[in-house]
What we know:
The structure is a single chain. 47% of the residues lie in helices and 18% in strands. By secondary structure, the chain is an alpha/beta fold. Strands 1-2-4-5-6-7-8-9 form an 8-stranded mixed β-barrel. A hairpin with a 5-residue loop joins strand 1 (40-49) and strand 2. It is globular, with a radius of gyration of 20 Å. Residues 59, 118, 150, 180 line the site of one magnesium ion.
Amino acid sequence: ENKNLFRSHYTYFDEKLRKKFEMREYVINHFNEAIEKNWIHPYYQQIVRTVTGEVCDAEALARWIDPVRGMISPAEFIEVLEDARLIHLADLHILDCVLADLQKSLDDDLGAIPVSINLSRYDFELCDIVDEIIRRVDRAGVPHELLNMEITESVTGIEEDYVKEQIRRFHEAGFEVWMDDFGSGYSSLHVLQHFDFDVIKFDMAFMKNFNLDDEDQVVLSSLMQMVTRLGIDTVAEGVESRQQIRFLKEIGCDKIQGYYFSKPTSSEDLNHKYKKGDGIPFENPESKDYID
Ligand code: C2E
Ligand code: MG
Ligand code: MG
Ligand code: MG
């Protein structure tokens, strides 16, 4: 019987691996079509000011809505596109969509809020990403202060002076540069000290492990205090509970983002919610009175 057990185990992994490779192939083969037909486009998730509860920014998160396969998540296609050296084309396409959405809300006078877009470390290697972004934003006539650039610490795997220079160019053009996923993996304090980030986003892992009286809280509050004292703004990601919000408020986290307020949604849904005019475009009806 043991033999059978092993066999079924292997079959399971074979099957998983086979599916993964199959998806990989699908993504690469259909990438051009997905861009042309806007199967790839941004969803938006609001970022909220901790003290007041007002929406202050939004993050653009790529979605691949496939006519055959339905929703394909970033976890399934971002890495594939990075490996295939196509990721810059996806990121610039997302930027174009975001610019179109921003133009619409500027025209509709809905009050456009700044949008963060996610950049891959490979964007910096595959093209002059700063120049590409500036050209597209200017062509769209969107004010530069309406866009923030999110980059993960993995960019520091590229030559340090080169990355610093790109951050400087973003700043010179009037874009904020945010560090994404701080505290995941191999974060170093060196990066905090020597790279000129405007905002640090604390990784969701901090919220996942969240318990009262936990060591994680000591680590989180100390890091948050340090970042704040360095003059950098802070965002907590993956916020799902009122208890977490209370703690984040206590330790002086500037902004929060998470399912507690809303999941990423399409721009149509978002605009619809704004148009209802209640001023609280949150999914969670309780979230408007979270400050207690
Ligand atoms: P990220 O930039 O750190 O984005 C946050 C992720 O956390 C998003 O996953 C979001 O949907 C999810 N999230 C937000 N709030 C909560 C919460 O309260 N609980 C939980 N469990 N999750 C929450 P998503 O959209 O699947 O994106 C995953 C990652 O894929 C992103 O992580 C980012 O690294 C990458 N990505 C997404 N869009 C793009 C893009 O346009 N370009 C590039 N290069 N990468 C992207
Ligand atoms: Mg991000
Ligand atoms: Mg993140
Ligand atoms: Mg600052």
